Amino acid sequence: MHRLTNRQILLGITGGIAAYKSAELTRLLKKAGADVRVVMTPAATEFITPLTLQALSGHPVHLQLLDPEAEAGMGHIELARWADHILIAPASADFIARCAAGMGNDLLTTLCLASDAQISLAPAMNQAMWRDSHTQANIEALKSAGFNIWGPDAGEQACGDTGPGRMLEPTDLAERLAAEFDYLALSGKTVFITAGPTREPLDPVRFISNHSSGKMGYALAQAAVDAGAKVKLISGPVNLAPPERVECVQVETAEQMLAASMEGIETCDLFIGAAAVADYRPVAIAEHKIKKGNEEIMELRLVKNPDIIATVAKHIHRPFTVGFAAETRDVIHYARDKLTRKHLDLVIANDVSVPGIGFNSNENQVTLVTAEDAITLPQTSKRLLAKQLIDQIAQQLKTNNE
Ligand code: PMT
Questions:
Q1: Domain-by-domain residue ranges, the chain?
Q2: What's the gap in Å between 209 CA and the centre of ligand 1?
């Protein structure tokens, strides 16, 4: 089921008594980490309320093709593109017939036509309807068009008949759906990543900060999502759009970054601290803009900020914890010192004295430092480097969990 983490599943529900099982199916898919959007035909709403599916999926249910309000949110073409997989459960005889004929006379059939995603149908109907030659011809046509047909099961039916036509159980459908996706290096893992600088205000218009652009942390977030993880990106102020499928929490100060990092930390499997956190903040923030006085020298009083990554590494439900070390000299020595002092599992040492890498550059070059090893990765784009780092970290995480 871990393969469903972060997958975008469009669940279509058509009119049939088995529609009540779609509530459990939605719950199982959500529990497995999938993002589920539900589309119901008008007949389906006679069997189960959209409100139930909305509560379980966490999104409004899509009901109409020509609904200006829904189109203003996520329009039908956008919805068709959004889906990684379309699962229609239950699929009624009428829906199967319309789909096989290539019709687009409601929202769900239109989505099937408009989407490039794989489509799977879980038929559910009376046994005689299932055996009917029209239904069987439609099923064969859909199979040859590349649709998956999952089920139906045989047994006692709601109408009192016995025979084939029962929808497969939600657990069976969820497992079949999961098997449609590859198992990736971080499938099923929850990853928190800090990125960018922090800003420590002096007064309403000034702050202490640094040159971090967030590029390294954002590239890591993208690579972690691509490796199948559910990612929370805790970002200081940067000019970057968060990667798709990433939950991004925007913060300004180190204290806010700490609070966002600790929220839900017990669910986190891997924490990566790529942010350049200010070690100190002003003792007090002036209420109004500090005015220029006559003095030639102005002194600032600073107080130590909490160490976010050290706090994470001390937590009782401690995730695998990876820090960065931005250094300008004795890079490996200081990185190893941080590894021990902050109780980290791995430190990514970054020599920020080298031009063209480190802060606010498109490329980087780092050394992975553990108690025993120091592995240097060659200079490359932050995007490619992030992929290599995530591969290496995923391997170490796996070894650690064995
Ligand atoms: O954002 P970019 O422009 O792409 O640049 C990337 C980067 C150079 C910022 C990044 O690769 C990097 O090296 N990040 C860490 C920068 C840093 O501040 O390192 P540090 O040696 O001061 O901190 C060591 C570790 O402790 C880091 O994981 C840091 O996130 C963490 N830390 C530091 C202080 C603090 N109060 N809390 C922390 O969690």
A1: 2-179, 190-401
A2: 12
